[in-house]
Structures are given as structure tokens and as C-alpha cells.
Amino acid sequence: MPRLPLIIDTDTGSDDAVALLLAAAGGLGDIHAVTTVAGNVPLRTATRNALISLEVAGCPQIPVHPGCGRPMMRSLSSAQHVHGEDGMGDIGLPEPSTLPEDSHAVDVLLSYPRRHPGLLTLVTLAPLTNVAAALTLDPLLFSRYRHVYCMAGAADLAGNISATAEFNVWADPEAARIVTRAATPDKVTWIGWDVSRQDAVMTASDQQRLLDIGTPMATFAHNINRTVADWARDVTGLPGYDLPDPVAMAVALDPGLVTRQERAHVQISVADETRGQMIVDRRVSAPAPNITLVRRVDEAGFKRLLFDTVASPVPHPTYAGASLGETPVPHPADAGAPIDI
Ligand code: RIB
Ligand code: CA
Predict the structure, then answer these.
(1) Which of 85, 114, 147, 251 is the most buried (most CB within 10 A)?
(2) What ligand has the least distance to the C-alpha of 150?
């Protein structure tokens, strides 16, 4: 099956990192570029973590482009209390051996789909600052992508960063509002925290399974999530830590994993009291739907993809561009060498 040509926008915390492993080494994705944005951690750290994660996945050749360093209208409120100071569980990861690109993330989000109209899938795992900035320069941006999947919001209106808001939308609600106003449900799908909380929780036995698999990617995925595991135990009350970005990535890679979805009209509150709250209008008199909201995912199928991916001792080579008929980028011989975790 041909691999899905991807651009991934990320604020590389520990769950983003696992999503990057799925896309880079799961055999289903062909990452053309990664763009980074401030969110979980400051921009420089998000960029560092993306470089590390791609190296662990055996794909150091994938270009990483730094983007916006703060939300559109507000100062940055990070989630380092959830993911750790470095966003990756503060386990002392080695610095990446690769460097980010010079060209800006927003330029990449604008130029790539113009070069490959209708072929690229954009997956966003972060506050929507980069995407909103691109939309202000090109209001037809979404029409140029094959599809746009966002880990964003909570369709059941139960939040994680506040009682009513999910972090990616809460961190930059003005950006999320720009995205919802430009979206159409045939082009834009949101996978919210409600899905992650129900169908992507890593229980104690799932966590043990990562340790038992014992490959570099499995060990990496387990160790970097130790801080979020503590946060889940002390704050969310879930039976483990959930993986919002990996389950959103899994839906993009294999839409057959979706077991329930709906189309609805979604607005975003930017008022301080209800910052980042999704307003989902399901009335008969509601405006036309603008977003497809995934509601439930096949948990067993998601976890099968996750465990199969991290169990591969030699990461699947992923060649940027090959899926579009471009010359494959040779997979560096030493890229498969394990990185001490
Ligand atoms: O609310 C979950 C989202 O916020 C995920 O993208 C996680 O990485 C954090 O950025
Ligand atoms: Ca994220």
C-alpha cells in the first residue's frame, strides 16, 4: 500500500514524540516535513525533541522547520508541568546529531501543498498558531491539502487543561478560531481529548508491554512518558496516561480505525472565563457543519499499530518525497544504529 505523504506540525512533548514514531517508522506514512511550534514546551525545545524523535525512529533525514515561538495574541503557557521541563520526561536524552532547517514552518505549510496540490495530508499535534498564520496568508490553504487532521478540542466539552478546554485549543484560542472559520468538514477532521481519554489510555499492562518489547523505540516511548504518567495519576484519574497525539496520528494513517464520527458546527471561545472552550452546535437550526469530529476509535487496532511500530528493531526506512515519485533520499546506513536511551 502506498505510504501517506505527510506534513506534521508539532509542539513535541512526550506524546507528540510517540506520534512521530508512528508516522516515521510504522510503514504507513511518508513524512515530507515536520514543522514545530511553541506549546507543550518553548519552540527551541519542541524543535530539539522533534529532531531526537526522528533520529530514534531511524529517519534523521526528515527536515524539521521551526515556526511560531508564541501564540498569536497571548503569551505562551506551556505544559511542562505535564510533560517535564524538557517535554520528554526529563530523562537526560542526548542532544540530536541533526540540525533544524532555516526556512520557516509557515513557509513550508504554504509552499509544499502548492508544489503537490491535493496530495499531502497535514497532521497537527499542537496549538494551531503556525496553521492560523498560514491561513491569514492563504485563506484557501485547506483546499490545497488532501486532508487536515488536528489533535484538538474535546467534542464532549470536557477539558484537560481546564474544566472545559483541551490544551491545544486553550493555548492559542485565537488560532483555533481562525482554523474553525476556514474549515470545511470534507477537509478538516478533529480528534479530541475525549477520544484519547476513552480509547488511547496506556494502562499499567500496556506500559509493561512497552518495557517487555525492549527495543530502542519501545524503551524511548516508555521512558519519555514517565512525567505524564505521574500527572495522569495525580490529575486526570485515568487508569494510566493517555496518548492524544498518537491516536490522532493513527486516525490519519488509518482512517478505518474510526468507529464513530459526526459533522458539526464548531466555534471557539476566546473569552477569558471560557478560554478555548469548543462550542458545538448540534441544533437542527445550527449553521452548516465546518468540522468532522471523531468520537470513538478502535482501541485494539490503535494499540496494535503502536506496539507493532515500536517493536520493529530496525525502523522502516522512510524516504521523504518517494511517495510522490521523487528520488528516494538514501537511508543513511548508520541511521538504524540504536541511540542510548
Ligand atoms: O491536550 C493534548 C494536547 O496537548 C497534545 O497535543 C499534547 O501534546 C499537548 O500538546
Ligand atoms: Ca502536542
Answers:
(1) 251
(2) 1
Which runs of consecutive H residues, i.e. helices, occur in 183-298?
Answer: 193-199, 204-213, 216-223, 226-231, 244-253
Atom of ligand 1 minimally distant from the CA of 167: 1
Task: Tell me phi and psi for residue 130, to 5 degrees.
Answer: -60, -45
pLDDT tens digit string along 181-210?
A: 999 999 999 999 999 999 999 999 999 999
Phi, psi of 183 (to 5 degrees): -80, 155
In the structure, what pLDDT confidence band is assigned to residue 80 with cuts at 50, 70 and 90?
Answer: confident
Provide the pLDDT for residue 313: 74
Ligand 1, pocket residues at CB < 6 Å:
11, 13, 15-16, 39-40, 79, 125-126, 151, 160, 166-168, 193, 244-245
Within 8 A by CB and 6+ apart from 337, the residues are none
For the domain spanning 4-311, the CATH number is 3.90.245.10
Q: Work out which ligand 1 atom sits closest to the CA atom of 248.
A: 6
C-alpha 100: how far from chain center: 18
Tell me which of 337 and 207 has the higher pLDDT. Answer: 207
Question: How far does residue 153's CA lie from ligand 1's centre (Å)?
Answer: 10
Ligand 2 centre from 245 Cα, in Å? 6
